[in-house]
């Protein structure tokens, strides 16, 4: 059977300092205010002072006609550099934000290594792989647009 696993990489160049970008990414409860794909964020568990151990249930919409809900547990936080989490639910895997200075701005990389778990998605993943990857890129593009707008910087 073909794999239902996806290894997706997104890179943004944001014309804002690392500390400003970091502050927004570390507040996922606020993401629905600026990331149009994020419909709901519910905090299920608070993490430690760095945010490690926090669990949030996120509901996302997409460019394709479906929603996904999954829990994301923060597993590793290196201030101003990296946020890593473990997804479980309708997606299962890991996500990692990596930030680094880039001239006057910030290079942001998101690595998303997940498997789809919804039965219909698992069944159709081999055939719809390009559509799912395209959809991910659209959703991440919305995040980039929303973050730039929130920070008051050009794309």
What would you say this structure looks like, in words?
It is a single chain. By secondary structure, this protein is of the alpha+beta class. It has a single domain (15-150), classed as START domain (Alpha-D-Glucose-1,6-Bisphosphate, Chain A, domain 4). Helix content is 29%, strand content 45%. The protein has three helices and seven strands. The protein has helices spanning 18-25, 31-34, 119-151, and strands at 5-14, 38-45, 55-61, 67-78, 82-89, 91-102, 105-116. A seven-stranded antiparallel sheet has the order 1-7-6-5-4-3-2. A hairpin with a 1-residue loop joins strand 5 (82-89) and strand 6. The longest helix is centred in the C-terminal third of the chain and has 33 residues, at 119-151. The chain starts with a strand and ends with a helix. The model has no long low-confidence stretch (mean pLDDT 95).
Give a short overview.
The chain has 155 residues and is of the alpha+beta class.
Task: Supply database-style keywords.
7 strands, 155 residues, Alpha-D-Glucose-1,6-Bisphosphate, Chain A, domain 4, globular, alpha+beta, single chain
What value does the Rg take, in angstroms?
Answer: 15 Å
- Number of strand elements: 7
Shape: globular
Percentage of residues in strands: 35-45%
CATH superfamily: START domain
Largest sheet: 7 strands, antiparallel
């Amino acid at each position: 059977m073909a794999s239902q696993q996806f290894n997706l990489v997104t890179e943004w160049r944001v014309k804002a300092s690392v500390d400003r970008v970091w502050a927004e990414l570390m507040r996922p409860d606020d993401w629905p205010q600026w990331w149009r794909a994020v419909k709901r964020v519910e905090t299920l568990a608070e993490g430690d002072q760095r945010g490690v151990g926090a669990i949030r249930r996120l509901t996302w919409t997409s460019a394709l006609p479906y929603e996904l809900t999954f829990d994301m547990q923060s597993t590793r936080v290196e201030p101003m550099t990296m946020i890593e989490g473990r997804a479980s639910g309708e997606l299962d895997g890991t996500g990692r934000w990596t930030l680094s200075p880039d001239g006057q701005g910030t290079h942001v990389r998101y690595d998303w290594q997940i498997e789809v778990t919804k039965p219909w998605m698992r069944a159709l993943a081999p055939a719809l792989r390009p559509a799912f990857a395209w959809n991910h890129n659209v959703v991440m593009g919305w995040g980039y647009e929303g973050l730039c707008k929130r920070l008051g910087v050009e794309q």
